[in-house]
């Protein structure tokens, strides 16, 4: 709804109305100014073209779209110089102040004040004077020359009062309030904001009102007074929505999101940022976008979403390259630090903390050195904390090593104990086995019933003696003894008593025979006597002694004079004829047979 203008001055009047009007909506102004400057170009209206372009530039600045603003500034500056329109040059100089601030050329800014101030002296127009002082005051505010800002803004206020521009007065009061807030005086700031609000309501500038509400909310938020801050942000959003100022809505949402981040309401913060982000994207406001993303990063790391945080960090890297401010780099690094700390990478965290310490130093060279000191202490504390964490980690590793050594020791103790137990068991088993073997060996050579050497044992002994006699001069006499009528005894008194008789006979043999003579159970009731170095005569004497002892032997279950007799056959080894032991035993058996036949109870040699 652009009017057709027949003259350049008509167009200029319209442009000025638009600029000073109550409903300065930056987005609409950008659109209208674009059409106006195209129109002016067609008509070759250089001055109207300049004013329209400058209006567009100011609208970009109001949107904080610094990139576009700078581009336009560079484009129209040469033309402005050529035409030498005083007002447009003043306005461009004022815009330059903000562009330099927004692009980080802080050092250059103070040098821009003097030419502007001399322009203020030159002009008679209170409104223009007011604008110049306002621009310088804002710039001083931005560069934290707060004392200077208050002085300059008060002059601006007076000029606007003179000019009767209520909206501008309200803006200046709002800027003064910002300066007081920055100085740490919230009460004074709030008072200024309230007066500013009253004026803007009188003036009916809704856009201005939303900006003041936003600033008021921001001041409360800075002081950690979240409740009024949230209230004023919500009010600002309502007005911005009413006038269709989507960027204003996004700014206030961003303000609320930052509070949500401070209050660690991560989900709420993320929701708000999600709303605000595309608006800044669309407007090409990369500066705001970059901060919104940092807040997203904070909310993600706060909600332990490391992957999302890292994604944000990756995406935000582009803003570092395009010459970002120290404070942006600080916040960016802060995210890296938090991620590193979460991941336990304290080395990177400390590197970045050190880098941030350097950045802060740089930042505070133009700010308050006391604040830098405070931050230095804070950072040093955190560096220490992280070093402690590193030490603690090392400690944990050492503890683990000690535990490992201890468990190794325990393992060795268990191995030794088990080994010893195993060895003991083996030794005990060996002892048992040896004992058992001896027992079995004994059992193998003993007669169970009479506990005298069995047939195998006595034959083994006889064989040894046989070989001895064969190879030496020693003699060997073998005798066979058989109890008489033993079958009858068994039949008459029972088998058990027969056993008793056998035991008693073995007992008698054991007691009566000399050490060098051995006897053993040769068969049922048959006994073999081996007598080394014993003559036949001596062997006959053995028979007599044995018979005498046997007759006196008391046997369980039989009368004292038991009357059981035995017969004996004796043979002596003959080196020339006896090929083996059995030959000798055979002859003894023959003699025994003879003794039995000749009436028993006798010995035959
Ligand atoms: N109680 C008992 N009897 C046995 C044992 N061994 C053999 N006998 C018995 O001894 C008897 C041997 O009998 P015989 O060989 O006929 O001879 P005998 O009755 O002694 O008669 P003569 O030798 O001719 O005087 C048998 O009845 C066997 O059962 C034993 O360990 N215990």
TrEMBL record:
The chain crosses the membrane at residues 411-432. TPR repeats lie at residues 170-203, 210-243. It catalyses: 2 GTP = 3',3'-c-di-GMP + 2 diphosphate. The keyword Zinc does not apply. It holds the Pfam family TPR_12. PROSITE patterns: GGDEF (PS50887), PROKAR_LIPOPROTEIN (PS51257), TPR (PS50005). Keywords: Coiled coil, Membrane, Signal, TPR repeat, Transmembrane, Transmembrane helix. Residues 376-408 form a coiled coil. The keyword Secreted does not apply. Its EC number is 2.7.7.65. Residues 474-605 form the GGDEF domain. This is diguanylate cyclase. The lineage of its organism: Bacteria, Pseudomonadati, Pseudomonadota, Gammaproteobacteria, Alteromonadales.
């Amino acid at each position: 709804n652009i009017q057709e203008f027949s003259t350049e001055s008509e167009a200029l009047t319209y442009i000025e109305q638009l600029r000073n009007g109550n409903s300065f909506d930056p987005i609409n102004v950008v659109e209208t100014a674009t059409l106006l400057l195209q129109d002016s170009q067609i008509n070759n209206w250089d001055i109207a073209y300049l004013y329209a372009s400058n209006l567009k530039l100011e609208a970009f600045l109001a949107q904080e779209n610094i990139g576009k603003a700078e581009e336009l500034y560079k484009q129209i500056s040469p033309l402005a110089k050529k035409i030498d329109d005083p007002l447009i040059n003043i306005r461009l100089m004022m815009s330059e102040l903000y562009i330099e601030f927004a692009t980080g050329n802080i050092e250059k800014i103070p040098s821009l004040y003097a030419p502007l101030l001399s322009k203020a002296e030159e002009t008679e127009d209170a409104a223009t004077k007011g604008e110049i002082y306002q621009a310088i005051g804002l710039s001083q505010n931005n560069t934290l020359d707060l004392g200077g800002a208050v002085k300059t803004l008060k002059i601006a206020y007076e000029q606007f009062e003179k000019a009767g521009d209520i909206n501008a007065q309200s803006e200046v009061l709002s800027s003064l309030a910002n300066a007081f807030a920055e100085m740490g005086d919230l009460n004074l700031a709030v008072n200024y904001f309230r007066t500013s609000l009253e004026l803007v309501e009188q003036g009916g500038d809704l856009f201005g009102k939303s900006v003041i509400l936003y600033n008021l909310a921001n001041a409360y938020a800075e002081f950690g007074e979240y409740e009024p801050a949230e209230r004023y942000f919500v009010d600002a959003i309502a007005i911005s929505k009413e006038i269709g100022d989507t960027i204003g809505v996004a700014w206030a949402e961003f303000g609320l999101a930052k509070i949500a981040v401070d209050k660690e309401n991560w989900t709420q913060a993320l929701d708000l940022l999600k709303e605000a982000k595309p608006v800044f994207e669309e407007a090409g406001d990369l500066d705001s976008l970059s901060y919104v993303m940092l807040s997203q990063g904070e909310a993600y790391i706060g909600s332990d979403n490391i992957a999302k945080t890292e994604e944000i960090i990756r995406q935000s890297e582009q803003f570092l390259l395009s010459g970002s401010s120290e404070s942006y780099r600080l916040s960016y690094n802060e995210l890296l630090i938090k991620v590193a700390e979460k991941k336990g990478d304290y080395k990177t965290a400390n590197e970045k903390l050190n880098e941030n310490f350097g950045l802060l130093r740089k930042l505070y060279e133009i700010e308050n050195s006391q604040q830098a000191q405070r931050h230095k202490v804070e950072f040093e504390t955190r560096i220490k904390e992280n070093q402690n964490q590193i030490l603690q980690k090392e400690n944990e590793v050492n503890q683990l090593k000690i535990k490992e050594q201890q468990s190794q020791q325990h393992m060795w103790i268990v191995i030794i104990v088990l080994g010893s137990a195993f060895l003991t068991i083996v030794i005990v088993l060996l002892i048992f086995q040896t004992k058992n073997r001896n027992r079995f060996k004994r059992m193998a050579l003993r007669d169970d019933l009479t506990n005298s050497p069995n047939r195998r044992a006595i034959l083994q002994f006889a064989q040894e003696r046989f070989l001895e006699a064969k190879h030496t001069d020693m003699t060997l006499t073998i005798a066979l003894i058989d109890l008489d009528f033993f079958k009858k005894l068994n039949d008459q008194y029972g088998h058990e008593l027969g056993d008793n008789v056998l035991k008693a006979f073995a007992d008698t043999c054991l007691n009566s025979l000399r050490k060098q003579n051995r006897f053993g159970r040769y068969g049922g009731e048959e006994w073999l006597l081996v007598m080394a170095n014993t003559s036949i005569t001596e062997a006959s004497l053995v028979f007599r002694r044995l018979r005498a002892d046997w007759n006196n032997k008391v046997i369980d279950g039989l009368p004292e004079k038991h009357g059981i007799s035995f017969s004996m056959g004796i043979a002596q080894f003959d080196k020339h004829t006896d090929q083996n032991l059995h030959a000798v035993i055979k002859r003894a058996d023959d003699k025994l047979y003879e003794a039995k036949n000749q009436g028993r109870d006798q010995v035959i040699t």
